[in-house]
Amino acid sequence: MEDELSYTPDCLNAKMPVQCSSCVEKRAMLKRPKTGHSLCKECFFWAFEEEVHQTIVAANLFKPGETVGIAASGGKDSTVLAHVMKLLNERYSYGLELMLLSVDEGITGYRDDSLETVKRNQQQYGLPLKIVSYEELYGWSMDAIVKQVGLKNNCTFCGVFRRQALDRGAVMLKVDKICTGHNADDVAETVLMNVLRGDIARLRRCTAISTNSEGDGVVPRCKPLKYAYEKEIVLYAYFKKLDYFSTECIYSPNAYRGYARTFLKDLESIRSSAIIDIIHSGETLSIREGVKMPVQGTCSKCGYISSQMLCKSCVLLEGLNRGLPKLGIGKHHRLHNKIVNNEPLTEKEESKLKVLDI
Ligand code: SF4
Ligand code: ZN
Predict the structure, then answer these.
(1) Domain with 301 in it
(2) pLDDT at position 268, please?
(3) What residues pair up with 132 in beta bridges, in sequence order?
(4) Among 134, 252, 256, 316, which residue has the most ligand 1 atoms within 8 Å of its CB, making it the best to mutate?
(5) Does residue 104 fall inside a structural domain?
(6) Cα 157 to middle of ligand 2, angstroms
(7) How many folded domains does the chain comprise?
(8) Residues 178 and 254 in one domain
(9) What residue ranges line ligand 1, CB within 6 angstroms?
């Protein structure tokens, strides 16, 4: 935890005998990265928790009686999410039944350790826990996938498989909703990445606080920490002495997101509202009429939602099982479908296959 705090030394007012600007009683312990206010620990906790509560109420995220699965990785975001959800559920009588839902990607030396943290959180918060693993769902652990695909596209496999694994776990647990620990920095980063990629469909979706998925068989998801700054999540976990795991994934080459993150941090250091400003820009964007959007259907193989005939997960899995790990990387849907369905390829398609090195 010390390491994580070392990048926000100006947030801690350890040497400054400043009074808390909220209670005007106790000594301020930190300067809020989001507002610049100098606060004591208790007033910071209250402000942070109230903002999450306001986010939940304003977006009408939950209904009394619902069962909610908290996607828990053992990291700071999901640990703070579990802590705050439990606290607010009791403080404001949301009437929710909370559960922890974890995905075991099968990454030795990373996920096995972080899952130990989740198991301790389960005890600390007294919440039921369900762990679903890639190995049991797909027959492949990330360790095995990296052995086959190397360290270039591994996060594509991991991200696609995780999305579906969470849904499958949620169905097993019979939860009404999943909430994830995505914070304001994550959302702003995603907006930037989608702008840079020109991915209009994702750009439109990525700032939504919840997915509305009635009728498509997918469990709705929401992000109660959508407006919480990462720096404040770290401070909250630190001062609350929460038990979380702070090691990076050993297979983390996600260079593109890394650049977007560095860029965002640079912007934030000059102007702290940059994070919220980017989210607001994403929220208020509107798409010109007539722009073609992917139509959501279902995968002809597994029935999961997909805008193509086969979902990404099925194409990637088929590639792994056939020893063609590059199948499914990139957008060559027709080609992927033909290969997966064992349909004969034209000469042009054969040569494309060679160029793509599938
Ligand atoms: Fe998976 Fe990549 Fe994240 Fe590691 S960094 S957990 S491989 S998505
Ligand atoms: Zn599928």
Answers:
(1) 297-354
(2) 92
(3) 103
(4) 252
(5) yes
(6) 13
(7) 2
(8) yes
(9) 105, 142, 154-155, 158-159, 249, 251-252, 254
Report which ligand 1 atom has the smallest distance to the Cα of 249: 4
Phi/psi-derived region of residue 204, left when phi > 0, alpha when psi is between -120 and 50, beta in every other case: alpha
Residue 15 lies in a domain: no
Q: Whole-model pTM?
A: 0.88
Task: Give the distance (Å) from ligand 2 centre to CA of residue 310.
Answer: 5
State the ligand closest to the CA atom of 336: 2
214 and 150, same domain (yes or no): yes
Tell me what pLDDT residue 214 has: 56
**Same domain? 187 vs 251:** yes
120 and 250 housed in the same domain: yes
Q: Which of 283, 315, 339 is the last residue of a domain?
A: 283
Q: Which of 222, 191, 186 is nearest to 66 (CA)?
A: 222
Q: Are residues 67 and 215 in the same domain?
A: yes
- The residue whose CB lies within 8 Å of the most ligand 1 atoms, and thus the one to mutate among 114, 142, 163, is 142
CA of 305 to the centre of ligand 2 (A): 8
Which parts of the chain are beta strand (E)? 30-31, 38-39, 67-71, 97-104, 129-133, 177-179, 221-222, 297-298, 305-306
Q: What is the mean pLDDT for each group of 10 consecutive residues in the chain (358 residues)?
A: 46 71 94 92 97 98 97 96 98 98 95 94 95 95 93 90 92 94 96 90 89 72 97 96 91 81 93 94 87 83 85 88 77 70 74 63
∠ CA 194-196-198, nearest 5°, is: 65
Residue 304: predicted pLDDT: 85
What is the pLDDT at residue 4? 46
Describe the crossing of helices 184-197 and 274-284 by its angle, rounded to 10 degrees.
60
Cα 304 to middle of ligand 2, angstroms: 5
Q: What is the pLDDT of residue 3?
A: 41
- C-alpha of residue 308 to centroid of ligand 1, in Å: 24
| Residue from 148, 145, 185, 174 nearest 162 by CA | 145
Give residue 20 CA to ligand 1 midpoint distance, Å. 40
Residue 221, SS3 per DSSP? strand
Ligand nearest to the CA of 301: 2
Q: Do residue 320 and residue 203 come from a single domain?
A: no
